[in-house]
Amino acid sequence: MTQILCNKLAVFGVGLIGGSFALALKQAGAVGEVVGVGRSHANLEQALGLGIIDRIAIDAVDAVQGADIVVLAVPVGQMAAIMQSIAPHLSSNTVVTDAGSTKQDVVALMRQYLPAQLELCVPAHPIAGAELSGATAARVNLYQDKNLILTALPETTMESVQRVRQLWQLCGAKVSAMQAAEHDAIFATVSHLPHLLAYALVDMIVQRENADVLFNFAASGFRDFTRIAASSPEMWRDIALANQVALLAELDAYQAKLNQLRDALATNNGDALADIFSRAQAARQAWQARLV
Ligand SMILES: NC(=O)c1ccc[n+]([C@@H]2O[C@H](COP(=O)([O-])OP(=O)(O)OC[C@H]3O[C@@H](n4cnc5c(N)ncnc54)[C@H](O)[C@@H]3O)[C@@H](O)[C@H]2O)c1
Ligand SMILES: O=C(O)C(=O)C[C@]1(C(=O)O)C=C[C@@H](O)C=C1
Description:
Layout: E1 6-12, H1 16-28, E2 31-37, H2 41-49, E3 55-56, H3 60-64, E4 69-72, H4 79-86, E5 95-98, H5 104-113, E6 121-122, E7 124-126, E8 147-150, H6 158-170, E9 174-177, H7 180-206, H8 211-217, H9 220-226, H10 233-242, H11 244-266, H12 270-291
Parallel strand pairs: 1-2, 1-4, 2-3, 4-5, 5-6, 8-9
Antiparallel strand pairs: 7-8
The chain binds nicotinamide-adenine-dinucleotide and prephenic acid (PRE).
């Protein structure tokens, strides 16, 4: 059993990500009380029933009072309102961290709403997840051997970073650090763009007159390409808007690649098609091999 590193953990948004964080820390024996705050009372009751949280907070003030760590695991569009509501009630020792998929927006909001707390602000992003939402989707081992990226502010103290790093390591995560801008550029390419593409394909199909027939015959290739189109629309709307600039650049780059493919196809240029497919096949196989 690990020693208690956090007597009171306040989790805003006890869904897949916040719930999995709480479960892993409880299993590690690293937290005392876990208090949950949410928008949906039914979800919080489920979280309580599943043992993810020990108590439902009466309100945001009750949640943060005496908390060692406050984690914001809500859609990134909700971060501003929460930061604003907790700012006057944070103690001088409370670390505020988050799990949002975008980081420049979270850093900017921390500067705007938590200016007195910046030394204790530790923006973070677990690179693990699923297309599922809510407390019932939380998994104790979600973060095992997965990356966790910290994008500390220049003001964040080493001690604050260390407190958050330790918690994620206890969840099994491999913790690294980078600048928020670099983070957002990387995840525009390898996470945010793929989600837009999956949503676009499914939406294109569902708007066809023969959508039923198409879905009837769709198989594993379609399933693998579009699993993430079953993800939360609110969460992905917020991510897309928060990372608008980088995501627009990635959409343009992808469109250029599609045009290359289109030209090759339209001109019966099998060599050009095979070149693209072979390069992609080798890269995908090499990437897969790195995972094991
Ligand atoms: N799903 C993923 O794969 C994944 C991976 C990494 C990071 N993230 C990020 O983690 C965060 C949470 O995502 P999730 O997948 O756990 O979503 P989720 O829908 O499972 O959980 C979010 C929870 O936040 C609650 N909530 C929403 N607004 C709130 C508010 N104003 N105050 C309090 N609670 C509120 C919701 O009721 C919900 O229970 C998001 O910022 C997301 O971008 C998601
Ligand atoms: O596995 C999934 O369903 C995910 O979408 C997880 C995923 C990703 O794109 O890889 C999604 C968003 C994150 O912020 C981190 C991870």
